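Kindly inspect this one:
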Amino acid sequence: MPTQSLPHATTMQAVCYTQPGAADVMHLESLPVPQPGRGEVLVRVLAAGVNRPDLMQRQGLYPPPPGANPRLGLEIAGEVIATGPALEGQHMPALGSRVCALANGGGYATYCLVPAGQCLPWPEGFDAIQAAALPETYFTVWSNLFMPTIMAPGTRVLIHGGASGIGTTAIQLVKAFGGQPFATAGSTEKCALCTSLGAKAINYKEEDFAERLHTLTQGRGVNLILDMIGGAYLDRNLKSLSPDGRLVIIALQGGAKAEKADLARIMTRRLTVTGSTLRARDATAKGRIARQLQEHVWPLLAEGQVRPLIHAVFPLSQVVAAHKALEEGQHCGKIILVPDHTQ
């Protein structure tokens, strides 16, 4: 079946860099617009999310998996302007439909190719900026906290980095499904945000989170921890888990190695320590997450029960400033890029 398409430009603006390094290595280039292959759609990008994996890739610390687009950008929102031939049994988004998508790279551009199964419609009432803030964070949180089974009501969950895009999403979803969220953050302002979203907040710069959590839970600990710090928190995370608890490590901002950890605690309290990355998963796995999100979470977004928090919006030409804003760590919620012509 031939590729279907709407009229579109033959060249696009895309963020590129030739060598890993600081934010200043990035620049805009004019590149040919790619054409969709089997199972792919071409999206005219109206907004793109900025995420910590982008920073790590630009620094040379997180190379894209084989076959992925080597350019930056893992989540977008926009309009479908071309579709490739569908895979067997695959539903393709309609031409002209507005989708947000988990991209395999290349989202920092005015056009982006994405697998059809990783596309979702904009939730009802959302604009491009709000929709672009969803895929990376919601795919990550859902797959790590709610799969393979949705958490039981009353589940106590500790979320590190509570004021980040991942953190604010996790707090809201845990709360929406009847769990009890706890969150760490590094300032009074960020703790206040976590509290406003429904979490019991701990300022990790002022008190030991494990000791404070022991008090807040009356010594019971939490059932589940979503951790983006890694080695620096491992021992205290283990101390914070209740029997049969689970620690999920999704990033290593505090290092990949731990100086100490009580492994006997894992055995005697039957703890599970696991980890995951999202980008390396195949299209089938990502499509499964997308379908569950559409079923269980998209209605909550449409009803306003959960929402993305937007910290700042930058034009694509100011991508360096956007990365620096994320690196500074003062943000609460998501940082978004938009094509300059939409400003």
User: Anything to note?
Assistant: The radius of gyration is 20 Å. The chain has a mean pLDDT of 94. The longest strand covers residues 40-50. The chain has eleven helices and 16 strands.
